[in-house]
Amino acid sequence: xxxxxxxxxxxxxxxxxxxxxxxxxxxxxxxxxxxxxxxxxxxxxxxxxxxxxxxxxxxxxxxxxxxxxxxxxxxxxxxxxxxxxxxxxxxxxxxxxxxxxxxxxxxxxxxxxxxxxxxxxxxxxxxxxxxxxxxxxxxxxxxxxxxxxxxxxxxxxxxxxxxxxxxxxxxxxxxxxxxxxxxxxxxxxxxxxxxxxxxxxxxxxxxxxxxxxxxxxxxxxxxxxxxxxxxxxxxxxxxxxxxxxxxxxxxxxxxxxxxxxxxxxxxxxxxxxxxxxxxxxxxxxxxxxxxxxxxxxxxxxxxxxxxxxxxxxxxxxxxxxxxxxx
Amino acid sequence: xxxxxxxxxxxxxxxxxxxxxxxxxxxxxxxxxxxxxxxxxxxxxxxxxxxxxxxxxxxxxxxxxxxxxxxxxxxxxxxxxxxxxxxxxxxxxxxxxxxxxxxxxxxxxxxxxxxxxxxxx
Lengths: 326, 121
Known about the structure:
The complex is a heterodimer.
Chain A lengths: L12 H13 L12 H20 L1 H5 L8 H26 L5 H9 L16 H22 L5 H29 L3 H20 L11 H6 L7 H19 L9 E3 L4 E3 L5 H11 L3 H14 L1 H14 L10
Antiparallel strand pairs in A: 1-2
Helix pairs in contact in A: 2-4, 4-7, 6-7, 6-8, 6-10
Chain B lengths: L3 E2 L7 E2 L19 E7 L6 E8 L3 H12 L7 E6 L39
Antiparallel strand pairs in B: 1-2, 3-4, 3-5
């Protein structure tokens, strides 16, 4: 006698949508095998993939200084930081895969320039002060963006962000400490810090994206609980946090219009050059080609390692070998 | 311009519909299989799921999990299991699988009224 089969009738889409809406409204987390609207899934894949790509490409500007670190202490710190960026990329690819994306496919889309990464990593690191300024300003801006994402409505993304935020705190502090050390050094070292701040300040503000008025899809992301604060709100928060830090450091932020608004207690700042932002994002930054070429080389030149490990596993792992269809 | 959002964490990137996404694409053959990773944070605690990674075999999955998920003493023990080998219920709380326990309140200690003057209960 055969066992009775359990037939589950497919609930209609309206009921599924209503259940999804209720989950979001209650501020509960959506988990991978839950039903979710197609737009929610695609928005998350885009956002998480591009975040992952940014972490992976972000290894390059600082990685350029690994062999030229001024001391063993700084080299150990920088190695740990660059390794963290790789880890962050992998946590995020892992989150994207829970949505049905494929890591190798996302990497291909990055290399083929179909998906983008943050414009900030298309600027060069000219001196060791840049390593400090990236930690302070770029990772500081990233923290402003990322802390609210720890409460993102998609569970795996929020959990990845919690791990990442813990580690970003080390990134920002090591950068600021590096700069403090240089500012206590020679006049030449102080000039290096100021020069790096002058080059990275505006691109750091661009990291938050265009003004809210030019960000038409943000409202949907906010409604879905993927995004928690608007671009302008986060940018303002970053400026308010950073100005006092610059004062302690003893550097000048390159904006003559930067001033405290006594009525609001917040800092007013000058106009951002959005043409530069668009140009860099579209591929016209100083290092776009170099970054992609290096990522492509890492994939292609190391393909033999992937294949060799797969072949080894096939020989030693019997029928469960890598590369076999699951 | 297309929608650009800061919610890419490290900075603003386009997230408009022109960016291709393809959920549920067939796995690319040259990538290694997916492993789920579980870490015991310290003695006395259960292993907890922390994420996933790709590795060619079980042994390298453990090595990669060490590097990826325990760079700061987050664990004393790691389990890895091929994602394809996991059988899961649906996590949806309205799933009929969990319905039978929903109405059995007598399985909880608070169901029973005991006079206040009964000690140690």
